[in-house]
Design a protein that fits this description.
single chain; alpha/beta; inorganic pyrophosphatase (n-terminal core); Diaminopimelate Epimerase, Chain A, domain 1; 2 domains; five-stranded parallel sheet; globular
């Protein structure tokens, strides 16, 4: 029976730090999910639960870290644990009531350290010294412990760099987590990653990104273009193709490098007329076209959602209570198809 881990964590340095720790543990397969607070946390938790249920039958652990769960979410996990063989574990450092800890035995709490350090100390026998050092640096920054100011500053710089990556990419995509976790692993073993060499460590950071992306020895591409290639290959598997009487449109949530990616997708998939990049929380939309296919400014204005330029426009759906942007797409005549991007070459 294989040991498998499904791990949902917060989308910040401490959250990814937890996943960096569990990468060192003895699991045969690992599946990582990340989330921010708000409505999306339940969506991402449900995705993690669905994955764990899919794997049930093996030795499966569902772990949630660096995230303060609601009572409803805890009840969902308690029900999952009682109805399956899945082992549920929650590691958190945000204050919760004693009644929560008494009811949910899977809830491990320590407010004196970061979640990364809590996970690291729990599994201390299974991780190396480099990994523990990283956990302590992340913890110093995360709980604002300035007893050793140099350790705190090193964690602060790490947070700055990881936050930039989270901002540039879509943290709900697996490629983002993989890149950050691999980067933390490369950093933890780097000779300059200590308080005596902070300036040299900062100077080395671009090369560390290249190592994390397996770009060692290759200087024909930049980190930026390599990340674009990763996003492009991932996006090619999208199947959110909508169609009305005139157009084929890819509707996708939160596409990184939106202008560059849109042009690449529209060039490769010549039967795709335009792309709509939506923010499902704000119901905002960015529209991209190519060549003479569609005037998206004219289209956005005709729908009453906004406007812009011929090849790039944007706006916001006026969503009725209980509806989503998908319902608004239907109102203007578009229906989801079974097509994939590969069908539109």
């Amino acid at each position: 029976m294989k040991k498998k881990l499904v791990h949902l964590s917060h989308n910040d340095l401490d959250g990814y730090g937890c996943q960096f720790i569990t990468k060192q543990l003895m699991y045969d397969d690992r599946f990582y999910f990340n989330t921010n607070y708000g409505e999306e946390s339940t969506v991402q938790l449900n995705k993690a639960i669905e994955k764990a249920i899919e794997l049930d039958g093996d030795d499966v652990t569902l772990m949630v870290t660096d995230f303060s769960l609601s009572i409803e979410q805890c009840d969902t996990l308690l029900k999952l644990e009682s109805e399956t063989t899945i082992d549920v574990k929650v590691f958190d450092h945000h204050p919760v009531s004693q009644s929560v800890l008494d009811k949910y035995k899977f809830y491990h709490l320590d407010t004196s350290m970061s979640a990364t350090l809590l996970v690291a100390t729990t599994y201390g026998d299974s991780i190396n010294d480099y990994t523990m050092d990283m956990a302590e640096i992340i913890s110093a920054y995360d709980i604002f412990n300035k007893e050793d100011i140099e350790v705190f500053e090193l964690g602060s710089y790490l947070n700055y760099e990881i936050s930039r990556i989270v901002s540039d990419l879509d943290y709900k995509k697996s490629y983002t987590g993989k890149f950050i976790i691999d980067l933390l692993e490369v950093i933890s073993e780097h000779e300059m990653f200590d308080t005596q060499h902070q300036a040299l460590f900062e100077f080395s950071f671009p090369e560390l990104k290249r190592l994390a992306l397996k770009m060692k020895g290759s200087y024909t591409k930049t980190v930026y273009t390599t990340l674009q290639d990763i996003v492009f290959e991932d996006t090619k598997s999208e199947n959110g193709i909508y169609r009305d009487e005139l157009y084929n449109v890819l509707v996708i949530e939160n596409l990184p490098f939106r202008s560059v990616m849109s042009e690449r997708l529209l060039k490769e998939f010549t039967m795709l007329d335009f792309i709509m990049i939506v923010n499902p929380i704000k119901n905002s939309v960015s529209m991209r076209s190519f060549g003479d296919r569609v005037d998206v400014n004219e289209l956005a204005r005709s729908w009453g959602i906004g406007g812009g330029h011929k090849l790039a426009a944007g706006g916001r759906f006026k969503v009725s209570e209980g509806d989503t942007y998908i319902d608004e797409m239907k109102k203007v005549g578009f229906e989801l198809t079974a097509l994939t991007l590969e069908d539109l070459k």
